[in-house]
Specification:
The protein is an alpha/beta fold. It has two domains: 49 residues, no CATH class; 182 residues, SGNH hydrolase (Rossmann fold). It has a five-stranded parallel sheet, with helices on both faces. Helix 9 packs parallel to helix 11. The longest helix has 31 residues. The chain is elongated, with a radius of gyration of 22 Å.
Length: 242
């Protein structure tokens, strides 16, 4: 009887340890968004819905306020833009990188002054994926894009604005609904560009994606670009940069 009791308690302890390990891994995975463990999509939706739609920006804002060089080109966006070595891609052009990881177009709309003060001749914008991951509506995202375009045009009337397509995500990584949302948003961005004479739409997905979204060869995680992705992006926009 004692032997069976000890065996029973050992099994209970093992089960508790296994459940604890799974819980820790799941919580970590959800918090960093690294692994898509069940029910990741549901939890991520709850996570964003509990957060403010517009988060406070990080330390980059302070740096952008302190360093305000007059440049030819400004790149504006989220982590995908922030991760590019624009100076190395276009060494003969004065460039400012104003991308901040995790930002939405709604958050970008709050910091347009730090972009306009640089007096750029050209402004390249690429954003939207974080808005979609926060389950914001396409109509609302479109409204913020229009707000950004109107305000930048007002503050920099001589600047040419290049509205780049929101980078598609990989279908088996982000899911069909998010990929379709990106594509729906890009249709709206085309319409926005067509309604402003100083705005040109650039489809960067043309070479980076296929029917399943962002190509494996250009991405490290199905959402962000790798070195070859940035090379393809550079090639796509070089004619407008130069």
């Amino acid at each position: 009887m004692v032997r069976h009791t000890r065996k029973y308690y050992r099994n209970v302890v093992k089960m508790v340890l296994i459940i604890s390990m799974i819980s820790v891994v799941s919580i970590y995975s959800f918090s960093v968004g690294k692994y898509r463990l069940f029910p990741y999509e549901i939890l991520q939706t709850v996570k964003w819905s509990l957060s403010d739609k517009v988060r406070k920006t990080g330390t980059e804002i302070s740096q952008f306020d302190l360093f305000t060089p007059k440049v030819d080109i400004v790149f504006v966006g989220d982590s995908i833009t922030a991760g590019a070595n624009w100076h190395d891609m276009f060494p003969n052009i004065s460039i400012a990188n104003r991308g901040i990881g995790g930002e939405t177009i709604a958050e970008i709309s709050l910091r347009l002054g730090e972009i306009s003060i640089l007096e750029p001749k050209k402004i390249f914008i690429m954003a939207g994926i974080n808005d979609i991951y926060r389950n914001d509506s396409i109509d609302n995202i479109k409204t913020y894009f229009e707000k950004v375009i109107i305000e930048l045009s007002r503050k920099n009337p001589s600047a040419k604005i290049f509205l780049q397509s929101t980078l598609e995500c990989r279908k088996n990584e982000c899911g069909v609904s998010k990929l379709n949302a990106v594509r729906e948003l890009n249709v709206e961005l085309i319409h926005i560009a067509q309604s402003h004479s100083n705005v040109h739409f650039v489809n960067i997905n043309k070479k980076l994606s296929n029917e399943n979204g962002l190509l494996d060869e250009f991405s490290k995680d199905g959402v962000h670009m790798n070195a070859y992705g940035y090379q393809a992006w550079r090639d796509e926009i070089s004619i407008f940069v130069n």
